[in-house]
Amino acid sequence: MLSIKASLTRKEHDAMNSKVKLDDARNEIVAARNLTVGYGNKKVWKNANFSVNRGEFVAVIGPNGAGKTTMFRMLLGLQNPIEGTLNVFGSKPARGNSKIGYVPQRHTIDNETNIACVELVRLAYSGHRWGLSISSQKEKEAAHGALSAVGAAELSNKSLGSLSGGELQRIFLAEALVSNPEMLLLDEPLSNLDIKRTKDLVRVVDDVVRSRNVTVFLVAHDINPLIHFLDKVIYIANGKVATGTPEEVLTSKRLSELYGTRVEVLRDSRDNIVIIGAEDHHGV
Description:
three-stranded antiparallel β-sheet; 2 domains; globular; alpha/beta; 11 strands; single chain; Rossmann fold
């Protein structure tokens, strides 16, 4: 009887493992296998293997010029790999995927821009129409909903030109979120923000991830404001890619292997990470 019980327990254990693997496969929305990318004959990074599941908050970090924005171009279907495969939502990336919301690194907004925030977000929902239309009410409801989701409801009727950098980033996030994407690509949204606004925006992004089960890729220069919120890190440097949890990737051993030279990862009294010996440790 004991041997039968043990046998049944092993079968149950195997069944549970199979279910976990099946669930992981269903949740996987980005999968890279032996991925090599570049421009012409120049390889930016090579032999990358990583996967990202639905509802994960992922930081993409590394020195300037390492290929962080190139990764976004790949995910958006704007560039093909040199070698290997990349699947997004189970198929080859394609331009104009409505499941992906994108906030580029630079928006041209000056003090003379008098467009109301809600109108910019509404335009992202409608795709092309300014002014009144039959579906204006539905579009405005969607726009107000997106603004509320990023904590910017009170900015709805303010002009874009009157906003601070942190407020603008919330509006751009709402603009990307209004069509209910399943994945968000945020290219350096924390640049030029002070410490308080950086922390506030990171909390907003994390809330979007958790409340909407949205997958977020966020390119950043400083990992410290993000580290306690992240599920994964994709670290690109020296033509290679390291991926895993922050605890797995941000170690002296792992980064030394990535850079091909001795790198020290230190933590200060506030648990901030300092990386010494990398090509551009100020960029991480």
